[in-house]
Design a protein that fits this description.
Elements lengths: L1 H14 L11 H12 L1 H7 L8 E6 L6 H4 L24 E7 L5 H9 L6 H5 L2 E5 L8 H6 L2 H9 L7 E5 L4 H10 L16 H11 L6 E5 L2 H14 L5 E6 L8 E5 L9 H12 L1 E2 L6 H11 L1 E5 L6 E2 L1 E7 L5 E12 L5 E7 L6 H17 L4 E12 L2 E10 L6 H11 L2 E3 L4 E3 L7 E9 L8 H10 L11 E5 L4 H4 L1 E8 L2 H19 L3
Parallel strand pairs: 1-2, 1-4, 2-3
Antiparallel strand pairs: 5-9, 6-7, 6-9, 7-8, 10-14, 11-12, 11-14, 12-13, 13-18, 14-15, 16-17, 18-20, 19-20
Length: 525
Amino acid sequence: MSDFLSQIQNTQRRFVQPTPLYAAGSPEEIDAFEQLQRGLSVIFETSFPDPLSPKTVVVLPSTTLDEEILGELEGELHYEERMLSMLMLLRMPRTHLVYVTSTPLDPVIVDYYLHLLPGVPSWHARKRLTLLSCYDLSPKSLTQKVLERPRLIEAIKRHVSAEHPAHLACYNVTALERTLAVQLGIPIYGCDPQLLHWGTKSGSRTIFRKAGVALPAGFENLSSEQEVAEALTQLKQTYPALRKAVVKLNEGFGGEGNAIFSYQDAPSDGPLGAWIAQQLPHRLQLVAPMLTYEMFMRKMAEMRGIVEVFLEGDIKTSPSVQCRITPLGQVEIISTHDQVLRGASGQVFIGASFPAASDYCIEIGEMGERIAKEMANLGVLGRFGVDFISVKQPDGWQHYAIEINLRKGGTTHPFLMLQLLTHGHYEAHTGCYQMPNGQTRCYFASDSLKSDLYRGTTPQDLIEIAVFHGLHYDGASQEGVMFHMIGAMSEFGKLGVVCIASTPQKAQALYHKTVEVFEFELKPA
């Protein structure tokens, strides 16, 4: 019996991860992470530019964000599918991908993406793709789930060849992703979590001032109900005509951490501060419907926040600039978008048009570059977005920088899909996306195509409808509709679309056609 137990123990040693060498967040772990990150520049110079170079990318689509706010996103678990756009990297014949999710991906969804690969048989791509799952539906972040499963970490490591340059691709990088990178022994193409402050609402305002970019008047680093009330009071005293102000949590996202305060009926000659303090719990309109005032103020104490003027204008848009800082410190302007915002306060991100309007896409690109250079000076790495509010004036547009999202965002995966499918690039100096054949492309994308009619529609149903009605992306014309978050459609009646065409008008027309087709096919009998 002792020999049998010994054999079991020897087998377990091969599969069970040993106790981590470093405690999470310890100086030793941080030093190990910094050493891994230093190797990125070599990989970037040698492996990245060569499409025939063997490489492994571990994709971790974890939205490691505040769970209470994230819980407001319906179908949040299926947001892990947004980074399936990275399966297009398999067009490079010696690239291997390890894609990790909370629950297993439907094979129909995986096949859908592999079929889109230009010039690569899906069989060849499939043998270079490893899908791993935590089998965990809990609301914890995916990264936390992986860290709780040492055998899964070992499985990931077994699929990273010692001979291949490898890196970790994440939605966002926190201390949890740093811990996982150290345990896997590979770097992250993303920002050091010690620099995350510069991607908060307060940190963003500091960067905007350094870059000399206009921003709304306001106050940052607020940490209490009293400080919020005082900031609201000072804004109204400084700008007597101000009708509304925005209160934002430092680490809110998608508008879910924002709130609007109305100054309607504020006293003009009485004790303004006392009135605001008394009215604040009743007048603060929270964007996230499930958040209470008490929860919001508790979050304000935990993560701090800002108060700024609500920008008014008869014609007002919400463009964004997507930037990238390479491991060599180079600044690139990847894209510009006009964001579509909805909700009672116009604060919730719904979708985006690419590129941003020709009236100002070059101008906001230049502003984004100035901001990105300040970020590069601080050591920031990877993709991030800068959001603006643009107000039409008689003599042109006035742009105000609003926030930096130091992570991938709602405009990242649509552009990645376009770029990896068409091999084109965005030219910031012209504001156009150029393909190798000289043609241009635009798109309209949304993560929130939603209707109760869609509930019960399986991935197979969706693909059949798209093919029958000619919506499916056509590699020959390089136009059509691509779907993402397909797994959310049956349960939540929600999915994402990227509608690619040669002009913005055609892209919008594709989107409206998609909505009309769904309404026709899925309406009750």
